[in-house]
Fold this sequence. Notes:
Number of helices: 1
Number of strands: 9
Radius of gyration: 17 Å
Strand content: 35-45%
Amino acid sequence: MRLTVSSLSxxxxxxxxxxxxxxxxxxxxxxxxxQTCWPGETEIDxxxxxxxxxxxxxxxxxxxxxxxxxxxxxAGKRPASSGTIARYVTGPDQFVRPDSGRVTIRWANxxxxxxxxxxxxxxxxxxxxxxxxxxxRRFFCAYN
Length: 144
């Protein structure tokens, strides 16, 4: 019994320490991850306002498009200006492309994607961590 209490205490200390280290990007504390209509792509949205899991966030928000399927998403750093798309969405069909930066995926499982961003846009910088739960989105995918 003593080993169990000791192990639980250690786990709680580790979780408390990890919780203090988590810092979402300023003003973008809500996030979600999903598969896109485009085969082989994962989308992660970082938003200012809470949004229903099946819906898309209200602008402004950061939209990360990673060219890997959710099943193939692996840990690693990705440049934000090539390959991985890291748009700052300002309105319907309006967005700003980054000048530079990186998107880091720490881990991904069937429930969530955890990572961080450090993205430089022409007039701002977005820096912080995210824990994005996987969601199913409501959209119609039309392929030609």
